[in-house]
Amino acid sequence: MKKILTLAVSLILIYGLYYFIWPIFNVIEVDDVAPTSVSGNDQPTTQADSGFADLSTQEQEEMLRQLFAANKNKEEAMDDKMDMPTSGEPMAFAVQDTAGHPASGSMRVFDTAQGQVLRFEDFETINGPQLHLYLSKDIEGTDFIDLGPIRGTTGNINYQVPEGVDLSEYKYVMHWCVPFEVLFNYVEIL
Length: 190
Hints:
This protein has 190 residues and is of the alpha+beta class. It has 4 helices and 9 strands, in the order H-H-E-H-H-E-E-E-E-E-E-E-E. It has helices at 2-20, 22-25, 47-50, 57-80; strands at 29-31, 92-97, 103-112, 115-125, 131-136, 144-149, 154-160, 172-177, 182-188. It has a 9-stranded mixed beta sheet with strand order 1-7-4-3-2-9-8-5-6, with no helix packed on it. It is elongated and about 100 Å long.
């Protein structure tokens, strides 16, 4: 009887160590391609779609002058907005770690043709049991949308925001340990 009890306790201990400790050492590296943002700016037409080659030399020169003038005006307008990124890239938000759960990197929100994408860049965190990505209205994770299990613990990782979700209603993007209801790290989006 003692052998059966010892075996049962040993199996429970091995399972517990595997469930609780192994994820910490399980590094999942992901390197997704950066999504392409949809821009509201009108793109200049190309030769193929404007009939540029069919225009006279004088008409071509006039069209090029107009395009250069329009681009110069856009550049000057962008220079006037010092608080806006000039590269057209979305603003980066820093990843915040929590006690015992180190994390680093940044997150950007991309508006793409397929909807919004959350992109973690140069991201690194430790793994844990059943980590999920939450969009949450509060830091306690009481009012949230579960985006599912994390895809990786290090690298550049994209997550599609479900259609119909208004990100302006959520203040936090969080890596959350579901069984223990523990916050591993978060990004505060303004």
